[in-house]
Amino acid sequence: MEMWFSEVQTPDVKLSIRTSQQLYAGRSEFQDIAVLDSPAFGKILTLNGRVLFSDVDDFVYNEMAVHVPMAVHPNPKKILILGGGDGGVAQVLSMYPEIEQIDVVEPDELLVEVCREYFPDYASGLEDERVEVYLQDGLRFLRNCENEYDIIINDATDPFGHTEGLFTKEFYGNAFRALKEDGIMVYQHGSPFYDEDESAFRSMHRKATQSFPISRVYQAHIPTSAAGYWLFGFASKKYHPIEDFDKDKWKARQLFTEYYTANLHVGAFLLPRYVEAILEEEEKK
């Protein structure tokens, strides 16, 4: 008998993936966690019945969350990851020798343990000697930071539940204060394709533009995300993601990537008209 996992993305849309077995199922203090194996996507991590990532497409998210800000900031030394308990973002950051410190703030200890067991390649990012893992609430951690980080990557899952605080107006203000005078924050911006997700998408951009002098949005195509279309926010105190992007400098690093390229960096900020219209409406408020 065939086994299928289905994620309800809207009342009228499901993402269904044929699975071969369930490798893990458990409940942490914060959420239901499951690991599934599938022919098409390899191992899949789900939280509360929603796909967080899969073996096959997680490289897209991790590379776009990391390389875009790293290619713009001229001298990033200290990085903060909010969430990131799987280790994928930290793993990509570990490619940069100039980084001196990576702080990972993940409240769910069980999530970290599950990823270390079932996704050891990603979790290896947490073993880098420059990485310090703090098992605590991200917003509470951020409240005690001031002028400390060059880059903040908000790797929190969704704007509800135990990570809801990382999408509030207070969060954006605290992130601004925690960054150095030329700091950059990148964050999950979701997808506005479905009407059910548009409100959260609008709210995030409105809060970012009210808190940072430079606020832009860029895109990536991730098959297991909502509508296969995912966006990131780029909020900066000083650097523009295109005007301050040194294409030749990044190419000279000769880093191995599977998705990100210098050309894609520029193209990712060229958004569909319906997305531009939403962003422009929020910027006027």
Short summary of the structure?
With 285 residues, the chain is α/β, with parallel strands linked by helices.
What order do the helices and strands come in, and which of them pair?
Elements: E1 3-10, E2 13-19, E3 21-27, E4 32-38, E5 42-47, E6 50-54, H1 58-72, E7 78-83, H2 88-93, E8 101-105, H3 109-118, H4 120-123, E9 131-134, H5 138-142, E10 149-155, H6 169-178, E11 179-190, H7 195-211, E12 214-221, E13 229-236, H8 247-253, H9 262-267, H10 273-283
Helix pairs in contact: 7-10
Explain this structure.
With 285 residues, the chain is an alpha/beta fold. The chain is built from ten helices and 13 strands. Helix content is 32%, strand content 32%. The strands form three sheets. The protein has a seven-stranded mixed β-sheet with strand order 9-8-7-10-11-13-12, sandwiched between helices. A four-stranded antiparallel β-sheet has the order 3-4-5-6, covered by helices on one side. Strand 3 and strand 4 form a beta hairpin. Helix 7 crosses helix 10. The longest helix has 17 residues. The termini are far apart. It is an enzyme of class 2 (transferase). This is Polyamine aminopropyltransferase. Homodimer or homotetramer. It catalyses: S-adenosyl 3-(methylsulfanyl)propylamine + putrescine = S-methyl-5'-thioadenosine + spermidine + H(+).
